[in-house]
Write a structure and sequence with these properties.
Number of helices: 10
Helix content: over 70%
Mean pLDDT: 81
Distance between the termini: 16 Å
Order of helices and strands: HHHHHHHHHH
Largest sheet: none
Number of strands: 0
Length: 171
């Protein structure tokens, strides 16, 4: 059985011509607000739309969401930042692009890290966008797995595919 939110997304996508826009909005929102199920949304993109279309929806949406989270982090008043976080900001501000990229490759929640990176004045929006674009290199894999699960479901092994999708979405 598919996870509830993924199942609802797949059902909506099959019945609405606006499904790609809905999914894009959810992915953008998950880049600003730390919502659970980001990986499930990526899998659902592949499952519902196939690899190419799913990737064309997921990748730019995820980057735009991260950029909006970064912009929101810029608006956070420095006076409200706890001293330990300010110390971490100073250290991160002294580091270069490679450190930012490595942080983007870690399994930190994208929304929270984008908000945090935005609060570091030394990190430029372009450096953040570039590190995010390269750091999202694993997104195509999630969309591909979803597309393969969709193909398997069409081929009569829906239960096995759904079980794999549920296990991957939970990871």
């Amino acid at each position: 059985m598919l996870p509830t939110f993924v199942s609802a997304l797949v059902d909506a996508a099959q019945s609405s011509p606006y499904a790609p826009a809905y999914v894009a909005c959810l992915l953008i929102l998950s880049g600003v607000v730390p919502l659970p199920g980001f990986g499930g949304l990526l899998l659902a993109c592949g499952y519902t739309f196939g690899f190419t279309k799913g990737l064309l929806i997921a990748y730019p949406s995820a980057i735009l969401g991260a950029a909006l989270g970064f912009a929101l982090g810029r608006r956070y008043p420095p006076s409200r930042i706890p001293s330990k976080i300010a110390d971490l900001q100073d250290v991160l501000g002294e580091c270069g692009f490679a450190t930012l990229l490595l942080l983007r490759l870690t399994p930190l929640p994208f929304a929270l890290s984008s908000l945090f990176f935005g609060s570091v004045p030394q990190i430029s929006a372009w450096k953040h966008a570039a590190a995010t674009a390269v750091g999202f290199v694993r997104l195509p894999l999630n969309v591909y797995v979803g597309a393969q699960l969709g193909r398997a479901a069409e081929g009569g092994v829906a239960e096995r595919a759904a079980g794999g999708l549920g296990a991957l979405a939970a990871a």
